[in-house]
Amino acid sequence: MFVVFTESDRMRVERFKQSTREKLRGVRCPDHHQAPRLHFHGVSLDEITISLSGCCARLMELANAQIALAEPAEAEMRKPA
């Protein structure tokens, strides 16, 4: 099956990637002072996967916790009125 991705699809994927990178911007291992390594695979939001690696289990815990945080706009939308 041949699938055509629009410029809008590409922009959404790029925004997702940038958002994820931003979440990890300040994350560093407290022991080794290294940043996590992040790789994206896939060309659409439906199929994109993230590969995350780091120097130790502690860094991976910190990075995963940071990625799991909701975007500020999403968090605001979920607040009760």
SSE run: HEEHH
Radius of gyration: 15 Å
Instruction: Choose one word for the global shape.
Output: elongated
Structural class: alpha+beta
Which blocks of ≥5 consecutive residues have pLDDT under 50? 73-81
Q: How many strands, which pairing sense, and closed or not: the largest β-sheet? A: 2 strands, antiparallel
Instruction: Please state how the strands of the largest beta sheet are arranged side by side.
Output: 1-2
Helix content: 40-55%
Count the helices. How many?
3
Q: Please report the distance between the alpha carbons of the first and last residues.
A: 46 Å
Strand content: 5-15%
The mean pLDDT is 85
Write up what this structure looks like.
There is one protein chain. The protein has 81 residues and is of the alpha+beta class. The chain has a domain of 40 residues. The chain is 46% helix and 12% strand. The chain is built from three helices and two strands. A two-stranded antiparallel ribbon has the order 1-2. The radius of gyration is 15 Å and the shape is elongated. The chain starts with 6 loop residues before the first helix and ends with a helix.
Features:
81 residues; alpha+beta; two-stranded antiparallel sheet; 3 helices; elongated; disordered C terminus
